[in-house]
What we know:
about 20% strand, five-stranded antiparallel β-sheet
Amino acid sequence: MKTSASIFIASIVILLLVTRSEGDARSRIIRISCDNQKENNQTLFIPNFVRTMERIATQMRTSHNGTAVTGTGPDSNIGLAQCYGDLSRDDCILCYAEARTVLPTCFPNNGGRIYLDGCFMRVQNYSFFEQYTGPNDTYVCGNTTKKGRLFQVSVRQAVSDAVADAPRNLDYFARKEVPVSGTNKSVYVLANCWRTLNPSSCRACLENASASISKCLPWSEGRALNTGCFMRYSDTNFLNPLPATSSSSNHRGKIIAIVVSVLSSLAVFIVASMIMLNDSSLNFKYSTLEKATGKWDECNKLGQGGFGTVYKGVLSDGREIAVKRLFFNNKFRAADFYNEVNMISSVEHKNLVRLLGCSCSGPESILVYEYLPNMSLDRFIFDATKGKALNWEKRFEIIIGTAEGLVYLHENTKSRIIHRDIKAANILLDLRLRAKIADFGLARSFQDDKSHISTAIAGTLGYMAPEYLAHGQLTEKADVYSFGVLILEVVTGMENNRSKMVEYTDSLVSIAWNHFQQDRVEEIFDPNLMMQVYPNSNFQKEAIKVVQVGLLCTQEVPSLRPTMSMVLKMLAKDDEPLPSPSNPPFIDEKTMELNGFIEKLRYYHSGDDSSSVATVSRSHFFPRSEGDARSQIVYRYCDAIMENNQSLFVQNFIRTMEIISNDMRTSHNATATVGTGLNTNYAIAECYGDLSSEDCILCYAEARTVLPGCFPRSGGRIYLDGCFMRLQNFSFFDEYTGPNDTIVCGNTTKNSRSFEDSARQAVLNVVSNALRTNDYFAREEMPVPTENKSVYVLAECWKTLNSSSCRACLENATASISKCLPWSEGRALNTGCFVRYSDTNFLNPLPATSSSSNRGKIIVTVVSVVSSVLVFTVASMIVLMILRNLQRYSSTGVLSDGREIAVKRLFFNNKFRAADFYNEVNMISSVEHKNLVRLLGCSCSGPESILVYEYLPNMSLDLFIFDAAKGKDLNWEKRFEIVIGIAEGLVYLHENTKVRIIHRDIKAANILLDLRLRAKIADFGLARSFQDDKSHISTAIAGTLFGVLVLEVVTGMENNRSKTTEYTESIQGTVEEIFDPNLMMHIYPTSNFQKDALKVVHVGLLCTQEAPSLRPSMSKVLKMLAKDDEPLPAPSNPPFMDHKTMELNHITQKLLNYHKPEDSSSHATVSHSHFYPRIQGDVTIRTNLLKILELTSSDIDTLRKDHN
């Protein structure tokens, strides 16, 4: 699904605009023009460009234009950006952010320019500030509506007026609205010169623009894109209201807008990139989903996820869906959202939940999943009643299914994927109670050459591997640990996290370990399994084995834990020997709020829902040019009392949030009271004094997102490093102390006595200073004597307190925070105040202020895509670059950045071939496996349709096995590995995708080999899919067989060669003459290699039996090949066919077919479902091999002696 999105990116990426209450950023791209010359010194160009962008960005925060010059000589970088005069400041920055994001795609060319409907930007390696005309001047006409003469007259008049007025204005800007005579319509015109021009150059540019734009008439819209100016006319009002101004520019408030690069376009891009093959059924309208869920009716609520709520929905056609409503107001959660979409859309397996589509057109971001009626596993195994519905057979099947899903994620995808949140709540059950792994918000991927990745720690406490929790180094063994905990829960029915509330003497892992050591495992079985009824049954033996595997998975040393493929083998094979587990890690599960790590790690924890509850920040937070919103959560507390009238509470809460949100746009603090009596909702929100206005809103947005997680409790409070919020059903505004006051100490570094003294003094200073200020805020930086470091301190009281209450609160906080010393960081979280000290500078520069009466109103839009800059990833840039470069490099297969690709040019002029093309795109883009070739993208904008695949340098298998020289590069070990790889790929297609896929053209030419000679199945043009409830499908016949392929691999003989080469059917030689001479089997007559080769021949013959029912499934084939002791049945006779004339000439009068004898592609397509799959070539190979297989070892020895 992910790849299919890339395929249609060219048509999907329509850069939509975000509707804003104060105006329109008009960030739609009109034209981008890149210079033809390449940059000479790319190493120097990049840092110069970055610096130029930073300088312009700084200017754009306070002005509508910016220029910058960085570097000298030919490597200098000169930039200009300007917004048109009717854009507000924040809309200007949004438009500039879009331009800044897209223009770098011109690199490595040395310059370029981009025109948007709201702004312009240009970058060169030479000065161009005074240029007003050039060869790239052009015009763009829009809309297909032809207008009458009166409209044209009005356009010419409006354009002439704008040309006359703009050079006279200081900002070279003019806008006109001229009514069209005799109608109720008007003409709207905008003209703007760049401010680097002088008035005469501006007038000359606009006159040129006027002449060119007139060529768009009589069409209803036109734009002139000139070197020094921009002009537009339209019959639709595109003009924004002019921003409010004061009498003097000095009194303008500094509007610091949130720069969210690609705000609308890339958010839409990423979500739209999940839409398969222009299938509108995958792009859900918000209104459709709102209706499907009964307007988000609480009765349809299925549960609370990591950063969203899941609802059941029913579409108008009766289909049931699961709808995940996403709320994220900061870059971390936006990253998790993107990550979930990215991960789940790139994989396809029967044991992974399926993403159906999304909606991004409404006020929220929404994901749509398949609906699984039995919900999650935890609702069964932790429920005394529902647990009876899962007998041991069903639980064991769920365990196996979960293991298979993890094996796929860890080993069978292009990039290894670690889920990081395997737990019972994330294992969903379908109608047949089959397991499907869900919730990929925390998943991470990394390449084969990486032993681990370092990442911010996230997951659910109780399931997280100790080494990951302590050191942040992530490997697949973290998932193995989580899986071990999960299967222990499945066997015992005991919830691992429940140990925080219930008095167990040990954690579940410890309980299982102790019982295993004492050979009393059966005592901890879930009573619902009723194992005592069958004390000596296989069920009990299996359950004991599962416990042992669970203990192996939860061993303290990661290297001792088995891989998931080993786990699956242990579980599935009855005779698989199991090693003895070592001690489990020492973790106090009863106090698993990370108390043992609190000096090391910052965290937050919520035990009120099933979401992933621990997010530990070991990584550096994202730097911000103007400051840091410090929206990381320090502590959240929810009241124990439940809300009495929940329906009324929700209404009051929503209204309270609206009131506070409005106030927070213009102030650092807000209070609200809504309702009466017991259902009253009281709330306070406050940002600390060093946050800028936009950072304050970001921090508040995070608090507002997380605090509602306390519902249905009657209230709660949340402390972030930049702000505070509290909600209650009673008035608390004058409270300054309470039983929930606490401290949080961070960092494991112990500091010197000098540091302690400085910290104490700095805290006393800020406490004293805060009381003297109107906003109860103070900050201090105090150097540590004799050390090259400082102490940084912040203190703030809530503004609802009086000065005496503030003093009392800060004094209490001072006493408590001193307990964190000598550690290098501490926070006091009190009812009425907040104090923090640190040896790291966390303070923001104080925002510029003027007199309160002159402060401009800061209008900042807080939307769910505040952090959509994260959506603009390197991956999406790569996809775009591939698509842009295809037309240039399709002949060579090498992109401008040096990457090699395989480019498939498609020529089809009839509906059959067009169908095969669509089929190939559909099939290959819906699957992901290490043994399937990967589709990177496509080009459909040129004269041909083109598919882009990963480049596999060793080409196809047939080039090796049918070549006497190259065949020597494939010894038996490598060939056997290739056979196994092909089998694994086919097992995945047949059994592990949501819809079973039949390739229909398995042959050596369609098996590609990567750099390490690993097999990848290619060419899905003939593939077909069908549902589980279908025994067969009627389809055109095409393709060859796996059985024939493996016989070719062993013999080196091309099956199709029999059309031109005469084979005889009698066996006249020894076994060595049938095996490929390149294998040199005669040198090792009694080796395991020869035994393996004979086994492969045997399996090949079983696969090519005449009766389909006798042929083994691919999973059975894989088992036969992989297991040394797997018994093999005797094969029956092959099908009778005259393969020497197998162009099907004898049935051409009955069947429609086409044939291409000039190439090696699959050339027989026969519309008849019961005709046997084609085995092109003479039956001799198979007959000879059948005869050989019947020989005993003594016969072979005799034949060998005779031959010698």
